[in-house]
Specification:
Strand order of the largest sheet: 7-6-5-8-9-10-11-12-14-13
Number of helices: 7
Helix content: 10-25%
Length: about 290
């Protein structure tokens, strides 16, 4: 059994499915041992669309580590539907960060650490990753799984309250109704933020929406940042990044069908106007001419 060969095939499949542009990221999928991060097998695989009642799990026939090298979600805690995310989906989101050797990365909602390891591999020994997880048990698993990576720090806590920037890239892996100020403040010059901007129905376990990519210009302290939506998403909520009023406004904004017109995020104080797609406290997603 040649696991290295399986990882290379797996990485090539992920890169092909989502057309990964980041060479360092594609190489990372080929090197990081996924079986280390999903616990001992046999594994429970989430099957979406099999039942009208929602996602269901099936169990692999054995504990052969080759079973984890497919484009599937693998349960970390099936009872809570907490999974190691689908590689093609998370790969697409990480690709939007343009990771490269030497970069500093904040990963909010790191789970058991697999995608933190992917990011750490992509930025190399000269880069660093701060991986944050609010669930203490998952954070402990991530800390153990990432113990051999000197460029990764695992923090147990709320991802909107970790102040150790500036960062070249911030990846939020849980659904928010708005970007938290610390994430925007934490972007260095040229830095990129990727987060799921989601709304959720009353009582729903998952929010739905799109991934939002925000990029600061070459100067720090800019009040207007480039922004665009890409990639639909259904995901768990992000603690501390949910607002009931914005949840409703976000639902209405998505329903309008104009998300593709969003080009900027403004932090400048202003009254809501025609160009405001989602106007919140301290931020506003806007349509119109791209920022300069």
């Amino acid at each position: 059994m040649d696991l290295e060969l399986y990882r290379r095939f797996f990485a090539e499949e992920v890169a092909t499915v989502v057309h990964l542009r980041t060479a360092a990221l594609a190489a990372a999928f080929a090197r990081v041992p996924r079986e280390r991060f999903v616990g001992p097998g046999p594994w429970q695989i989430m099957s979406v669309g099999e039942s009208p009642a929602g996602p269901v799990y099936w169990t692999t026939p054995d504990a052969d580590p080759r079973r984890v090298y497919h484009d599937v979600m693998i349960a970390l805690d099936a009872a809570r539907q907490i999974n190691n995310g689908q590689p093609s989906a998370v790969g697409r989101w990480l690709d939007a960060l343009d990771l490269a050797p030497g970069m500093s990365v904040l990963h909010v909602g790191c789970g058991a650490g697999y995608y933190s390891a992917i990011a750490a591999e992509a930025v190399g020994e000269t880069g660093r990753v701060v991986a944050v997880e609010i669930d203490a048990d998952l954070a402990a698993r991530a800390r153990a799984n990432l113990a051999d990576r000197g460029n990764v720090e695992v923090v147990t806590g709320n991802g909107g309250e970790v102040a150790s920037g500036p960062f070249d890239a911030i990846f939020v892996n849980a659904g928010a109704t708005h970007p938290r100020p610390l994430w925007l403040d934490g972007l260095g010059p040229g830095g990129r933020l990727v987060l799921p901007l989601t709304f959720a129905a009353d009582g729903a376990r998952f929010g739905v929406g799109y991934m939002l990519r925000v990029e600061r210009a070459s100067r720090s302290g800019d009040e207007v940042l480039a922004a665009r939506f890409f990639s639909p998403v259904s995901i768990y909520p992000c603690a501390g990044a949910r607002d009931a009023e914005l949840n409703g406004k976000l639902h209405d904004a998505y329903t309008s069908g104009t998300a593709g017109k969003v080009v900027a995020l403004s932090r400048a104080a202003h009254e809501p106007g025609d160009a405001c797609w989602l106007h919140g406290d301290g931020f506003c997603l806007q349509t119109g001419a791209p920022p300069h």
